[in-house]
Structures are given as C-alpha cells and as structure tokens.
C-alpha cells in the first residue's frame, strides 16, 4: 500500500519548512525602540534545544504531508503549539544578558509562521473531527487555562510584550474593562432596539426596505469617519442638555464610540431578525393559531424560538465586529486596547502594538467559538422540537 499525500498538508509543510529552517525565530533589541537583530533557531535557543526543535519540525513535516489519522494530527498540532510557546519563553532568557533590563526579545517571523502552520493543522483537524459544541467550548477553556498557566509560571516574563505589560499592568486591565464594556454594551443596546425593530419590519413589510437600506448606508461609512461625524452633535448635547455631561455624554471619549458601535450593530441584528422570522414554517404558525394562541403568544412561544438560531448568528457577527472596531475608539479618547496599539505605533514600539492587538484577537476568537457553539446547540434543539 502506497503512501497518500495530503494536499493541505503540503501547504502546511512548506510554511513549516520556511519558518523553521529559513526564517529567524526571535528578534533581539538592545532596547525597546531600536531595530531588532534576527536570531535563527540554533542561535535563539539554549544548546541542544534548537537542534531538537529542528528535528521535531523535520519529523512533523513528513507526518503532515502524509495522510495520517485526524486525531493524531490534532494532537501533533496542539503539542507543537505548546512546544513553540515554551521555547520562545526560553529564548528570551537565553538571549537577554544577565541583569539587563533594557534588552528586548520578541518572536520573529519564523516563530509566527511555524505557529500559524501548526494552528492551521489544528483547525483542519478540528473541522474534520466535527466536535460537538460543548467539546469545542471545553477545548477553548483548556487552551485558555494552558495560556494562563504559562503566564503564571513566568516562562514568558522575559518577552518584550510581557515587559510592556509589566510597566502598564494597571492601565491594561482598566482599558480591557473599557474595551469589553464598549463591545458588549453596544451589542446589548443594539439588541434592545434591533430585535423590536426587526419584528416590526417583519410584521409591516412596507417598512422593511426603507429601514434596512438606511441601516445599510450606515454600514458603508468608514468607522473613523462615523466617529468624527458624531463628535459635533454629541458635543452640542453635552453643552445644551441638562445632566448630559454628568452622564458621560461628550464630543470625544466613550460616548461617540458607543453610539458608533451601536449604529454599526443594528443592521446585522435587524436583518437577521427579519430573516429568522421569515423562515419560520407556515405550518408552525397555522398550528399555533389552531390551538387558539394570540399573536403575542405565537411571537414569543413559536416564532422567536424558531428564529433564534438565525438571530444568534447576527449577534455573533456583531460581537466579533465590535471587539475589533472598539480598538479604533482610542483615537477619540474612548479607551480600550486601541490605546496600546496607537501608542505603540507612535513610539515605533511594535511589542506595545501587540499588547493591544493580541488580546483583541483572542477576545474575538473566543467570542466566535462560544457563539458558534451556542448557535449549533440552538439549531439542534430547534431540530428536535420540529
């Protein structure tokens, strides 16, 4: 029996070959803003570790190219990602001179490419295994616990991004809270307004086109432009409406960011509500009428439960979108992780940029996994009910 080649595996293997054998593993800088000096795997890691990692990557390339069992590929990807995470921490301790508090060590392109390749392998294996929603959430929690364990262990303390965090720990958690409040608060407000508006558009078809077209126009306005357009009216409200300023309504800050995110959130919520309600089987409504249910009872007892998976899909889109867009709020004083992103850009300190970008990506990814699982669970319940 001949060996079978996995086509995606060839692509992953090519990424690994370049990332492991040709690209630098870490960057060393004498301080946080000077250009970095590339260090390849054998230079970046303590003696023996670099050669072992190269051997591991070489074996992994062969195994990935071949059609190996899916569960084995998943375990290989997870073990490889954990190995890379531990070794980049060891690299920081190896490259930083003793008692030197100014030197900076950060992952280089080889580390990121190798990590991306193994993450792609893991994602492909997960897709093929078709894990249950609860299993996916359990895996997400396990990954989060592993990352938390690595952080607590101190193995990453020598990395530049953790040094940036160490000098800004209190500010980091303050801005993290603001980021979450902006993303979740605007989503909650959009649901409070968008769900009734979607129900109204479903019940009154003559309103549907006008409302959806108007919300679609808002979606086409660039985020920074929308933030800017809101500064003048909110500033006027703060000056002329009693108690508005005391409530936090100002021309700059969190208020225009919140309003902009709320406006961006309305279209997915309203549109998915309309689509979900339109997809409710006519037989279900007829049966509900036949047993004497009122319009209100049909809405809350039949239509909304059956439309919920579609509505939840819109909520997922909004939450992931808002987590990303909340980063821009820092430009108008709204806070959030964007504070570190734009500070880092201004100071040409890329590790400070990563301090804002990495948790934003992690939050968006976690939100997508959880809400995808919730959508699938609600779909399965809908199927059993039908």
Task: Summarize the structure in words.
- The chain is mainly α and 386 residues long.
- It contains 15 helices and three strands.
- A three-stranded antiparallel beta sheet has the order 2-1-3.
- α7 packs across α15.
- It is flat and about 75 Å long.
Q: What general outline do the C-alpha atoms trace?
A: flat
- What does the largest sheet look like? 3 strands, antiparallel
Instruction: Return the average pLDDT rounded to an integer.
Output: 86
Number of helices: 15
Task: List low-pLDDT spans.
Answer: none
Terminus-to-terminus distance: 47 Å
Strand tally: 3
Helix content: over 70%
Strand order of the largest sheet: 2-1-3
* Structural class computed from helices and strand pairing: mainly alpha
Q: Using only CA atoms, what is the Rg?
A: 25 Å
Q: Encode the helix/strand succession as letters.
A: HEEHHHEHHHHHHHHHHH
Strand residue content: under 5%
Keywords:
15 helices, 3-stranded antiparallel beta sheet, single chain, 386 residues, mainly alpha
Short synopsis of the structure:
With 386 residues, this protein is an all-alpha fold.
Note the topology.
Layout: H1 7-21, E1 26-29, E2 37-39, H2 41-44, H3 49-65, H4 70-95, E3 104-107, H5 109-129, H6 133-153, H7 160-166, H8 169-203, H9 205-220, H10 223-240, H11 254-278, H12 282-290, H13 295-325, H14 338-346, H15 350-385
Antiparallel strand pairs: 1-2, 1-3
Helix pairs in contact: 1-3, 1-5, 4-5, 6-15, 7-15, 8-9, 8-11, 8-13, 9-11, 10-11, 11-13, 12-13, 13-15, 14-15
């Amino acid at each position: 029996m001949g060996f079978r080649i996995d086509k995606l595996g060839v692509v992953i293997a090519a990424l690994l070959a370049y990332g492991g054998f040709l690209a630098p593993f870490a960057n060393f800088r004498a301080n946080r803003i000077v250009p970095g000096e590339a260090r390849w795997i054998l230079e970046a890691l303590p003696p023996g570790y670099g050669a072992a990692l190269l051997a591991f990557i070489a074996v992994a390339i062969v195994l990935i190219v071949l059609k190996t069992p899916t569960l084995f590929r998943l375990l290989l990807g997870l073990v490889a990602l954990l190995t890379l995470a531990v070794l980049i921490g060891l690299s920081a301790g190896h490259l930083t001179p003793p008692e030197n508090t100014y030197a900076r060590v950060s992952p280089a392109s080889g580390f990121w490419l190798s990590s991306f390749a193994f993450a792609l392998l893991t994602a492909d294996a997960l897709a093929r295994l078709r894990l249950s929603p609860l299993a996916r959430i359990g895996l997400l929690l396990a990954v989060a616990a592993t990352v938390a364990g690595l952080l607590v262990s101190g193995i990453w303390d020598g990395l530049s991004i953790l040094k940036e965090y160490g000098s800004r720990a209190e500010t980091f958690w303050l801005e993290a809270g603001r980021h979450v409040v902006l993303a979740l608060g605007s989503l909650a407000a959009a649901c409070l307004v968008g769900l009734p508006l979607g129900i109204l558009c479903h019940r009154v078809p003559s309103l549907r086109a006008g409302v959806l077209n108007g919300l679609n126009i808002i979606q086409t306005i660039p985020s920074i432009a929308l933030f800017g357009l809101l500064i003048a009216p909110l500033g006027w409200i703060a000056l002329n409406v009693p108690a508005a300023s005391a409530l936090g309504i100002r021309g700059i800050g969190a208020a225009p960011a919140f309003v902009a995110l709320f406006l961006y959130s309305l279209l997915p919520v309203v549109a998915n509500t309309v689509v979900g309600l339109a997809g409710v089987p006519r037989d279900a409504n007829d049966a509900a009428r036949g047993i004497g249910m009122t319009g209100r009872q049909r809405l809350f007892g039949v239509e909304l439960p059956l439309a919920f998976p579609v509505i939840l899909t819109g909520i997922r889109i909004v939450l992931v979108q808002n987590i990303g867009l909340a980063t821009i709020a820092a430009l108008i004083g709204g806070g959030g992780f964007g504070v570190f992103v734009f500070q880092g850009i201004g100071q040409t300190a890329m590790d400070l940029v990563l301090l804002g970008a990495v948790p934003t990506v992690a939050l968006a990814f976690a939100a997508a996994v959880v809400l995808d699982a919730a959508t699938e669970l609600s779909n399965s319940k809908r199927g059993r009910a039908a």
